[in-house]
Amino acid sequence: MGKASSLRSARTRRQRGYRWEDVLVKRLNSCDGWRAFRLGSPSIGLPDVVAANTNHDMMLAIEAKSGTSDTIPVPRDQIERCLKWLDAFGKYSNRHAVVAFKFMSKKWKKVGVYEKRERREYFKLWDPIKMPCDLVCKYDGSTYAITEGKRKKLKLTNFAMPFQTS
């Protein structure tokens, strides 16, 4: 794969991620009492999306991931930044770090070749008692911790978002 093709692929992945963040913000903002914002560049150490509902005394820090493969990884530092952000807002008694996974309706097979499949979305709640770790979510919704290159089953609770999910 040439440099131009590699750059184009990287840009496509970033745009896919930005679109997923925008969808989450729009869905949350359509729900009564919710205000959500995309926080911008990943290089500044903030969650992808934050949302608050003062009526329910709730704040969400959301890490949004989308992809066309059967697994979507999340680096530990992205979980850590969600947790740090939530710690700064002690006013909210219900603070949750959520990882939002979107498996696209096309599965990547090889360069330029995709296979149709069902689109799936999962919203996983990070347990703040657990130490953050690298993790991966599979197309079936199962999650695994990655330690020293090995996968170990990681039980994360499904989080009920305030909007209808598909």
Q: How would you describe this protein?
A:
By secondary structure, this protein is an alpha+beta fold. It has one domain (3-158): Trna Endonuclease, Chain: A, domain 1. It is built from two helices and twelve strands. The protein has helices at residues 3-29, 76-87, and strands at residues 34-38, 49-53, 58-67, 71-74, 94-103, 106-110, 113-116, 120-126, 134-138, 143-147, 150-153, 157-158. The strands form three sheets. Strands 1-2-3-5-8-12 form a six-stranded mixed sheet. The protein is globular and about 45 Å long. The mean pLDDT is 89.
Topology:
Layout (H helix, E strand, L loop, with lengths): L2 H27 L4 E5 L10 E5 L4 E10 L3 E4 L1 H12 L6 E10 L2 E5 L2 E4 L3 E7 L7 E5 L4 E5 L2 E4 L3 E2 L8
Parallel strand pairs: 3-5
Antiparallel strand pairs: 1-2, 2-3, 4-9, 5-8, 6-7, 8-12, 9-10, 10-11
Query: Which sequence of SSEs, written as H and E, runs from N to C?
Result: HEEEEHEEEEEEEE
* Alpha carbon gap, first and last residue: 35 Å
DSSP strand (E) fraction? Answer: 35-45%
**Percent helix:** 10-25%
Count up the helices.
2
CATH class: Alpha Beta
Radius of gyration: 16 Å
Q: What does the main sheet amount to?
A: 6 strands, mixed
CATH topology: Trna Endonuclease, Chain: A, domain 1
Spatial strand order of the main sheet: 1-2-3-5-8-12
Count of separate structural domains: 1
pLDDT averaged over residues: 89
The secondary structure category is: alpha+beta
Stretches where pLDDT falls below 50 for ≥5 residues? none
Q: How many E-type strands? A: 12
